[in-house]
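Lecture notes, unit on binding sites. The following record was shown on slide 14. It pairs a sequence with DGJ.
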Amino acid sequence: MITFNEHIMQFQLDTAHTSYVMRVKEGFLEHVYWGALLDTGDHSYMRREQGRASFSPHLEGCRGPILDDIPLEYPCFGRGDLRTPALEVLNPDGSDIADLRYVSRKIINGKPVLNGLPAFYAEEGDRVQTLCIKLRDSFSALECDLYYSVYEDLDLVTRHAEISNCGAQALTLIGAASACVDLDRCDFDVISNYGTHEKERMIERTPLVHGKMEFASRRGSSGHVHNPFIILASRSADEDKGEVYAVTLVYSGCHSMSAEGGQYDTCRVVAGINPDGFRWQLSPGETFVTPEAALVYSAQGLGGMSRTFHRAINDCLIRGKYRNRRRPVLLNSWEACYFGFDESKLMQIGACAADLGMEMLVIDDGWFGVRNNDTTSLGDWYINRAKLPNGFDNIHKMLHEKGCGLGIWFEPEMISPNSDLYRAHPDWCLHVAGRPRSEGRHQLMLDLSRQDVCDHIYESLASLLRTGTVDYIKWDFNRNAAEVGSALLPPEKQGEVLHRYYLGLYSVLERLVTDFPDVLFESCSGGGGRYDCGMLYYMPQTWTSDNSDAIERLKIQYGTSLIYPLSSMTGHVSASPNHQTGHVTPLNTRFNVALTGSFGYELDPTKLSDEEKKFVTETAAIYKKYGDTLVNGDHYRLRSNYTEDCAAWCTVSPDRSVCIAVYVNTHVRVYPRNEHLVLKGLDENAYYRDTLEGKVYSGKQLMGYGVAVDRNYEYSSAMWILEKVK
Ligand code: DGJ
């Protein structure tokens, strides 16, 4: 609920358990409070003016406020706030001053869409309200509408800004964040993800310093290195308790997520498009819409924060047929045969997969152009008849007769210099005239800031999807950007290219998901190099990592689960020894770890022993039965191999009638203690039957002592499927 108290000019945004309070004072929109739910009252006492910042400039000679000491909702550079700005502009006179003051407010039921950008949505009947506050710089006639959408039941607040040039001359945005939050303390730990290809989303937790800590990307995508979120946790916060503030971005391009410990022990969080390399020319009458930021406060520690994000992403970001539903069990051909397949091989592995209970064969890289390795053919999206003389027809027919779908890999945003497309359109890639074009994995990025390129990409996929043979698309993206330039834009607009690229990509994706609503899209970028809420708006799942080693995946999946729900994480059982690490891991452990919500296989099933095939058949049935619980359940991280020799988690259905728990040994030591796994989230007054072993436990036992665990050998694991006894 949003309330506005006109006497004290105070806005209060309440969700079921949280409040976010702002006020207008001397024209400035100030931040007052973000935390546990408050009564509606006068909260202005929370803002104490201490006359600090004697060195910082005052407004109005030396009488006015000192902006450097005021918590602001959308701070601008140029008038004395010397912390990280949310907005920085280059005015026609060459100055970089902006001075936004309150003009008006509007409260809307529901949530307006963000033009051309992915965003959390609200449906009829959802308890969602939106506050729009208009600010204006009367010197430049720059207007800024700040949007706050309050999801009452989800404990979620989303924000974005719309910046309009109402003046007579063009100006340039050189930084336009999605959100800024000024907290009045700095005794936080900052939690972020870092990583690289095959090692994505490792967790790092460090005390906030006095100074700026920034987690950013200039890679042309959200990237493997820093995922677009930032978490501030009270120093004592753990999985279950303590205050946690988190901000993530619904965006897939270059981001900047920063926290700045200030001179008066305050903290400013700024989240948005990375201002480095960004320039946006705003002509008179034009409006720039920032990506959306999503804000979650939890007093229930990191676990509470994660479950809030998981529910919000599952219920109000992911769309389409597969929202809140388990996905088909699939076999992906990549680690089964890489580029080395033909029709007969695909028929064999596809038929075998279907006979074992799998529901989709995905033909990965190598089915098009003359692609037998990664040096060629991206852009030539026609079937390689040398490998597949009958196209997909026979494979599709065989699979459909067995009740199985067909999936196809694409990398639509890329072009190989060795391709017919490049020979026909050498200017269709991102490049700067006269400079060399740097290749990554022998490929260049197409220029999706161009409409003709976007139309071409749409048509490449749509023409195949129209045949009705394809049920699933794996959409890959395998390099970072360099020489970011577009042949169609003038010099003064080259700083817009990467954001325009994402507007182009999102428009293609929107057309595809609208025109082909039954197709399941999976996002991928060398594994999880573009794992963000922007892509999840169009594609409900992401290939979590190219590292398919079950033991390595434990940390990756743990880190991913900070923000993203299990439903969005694809996990595959791959061969042992693992292709990336050589680890030898038991099949049941590989299954237990891959069972992360969107489950499949990444091996040659014809090479499995009869015993292994039996296991695959039985576990496919388990996934089909409990997949919806894994997708929609409340996820509890129980043990972490960041700090222990094991990892464990459980997922509990929303009605607490089913719990799936997993424990994995990552290192066995001599004389291990009597290990037991304490579960969470159950009904303590109920009894639960372990459906695999038949034993019945009380909820109190399970959440008190837990289940007994054998730590008998390295990489052994156990799963419990507990159902409430009626
Ligand atoms: C990178 C992906 O992450 C892999 O799963 C696979 O699809 C390869 N690309 C194919 O080139």
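Take-home: Residues 2-316 form a domain with the Beta-galactosidase; Chain A, domain 5 fold (CATH 2.70.98.60).
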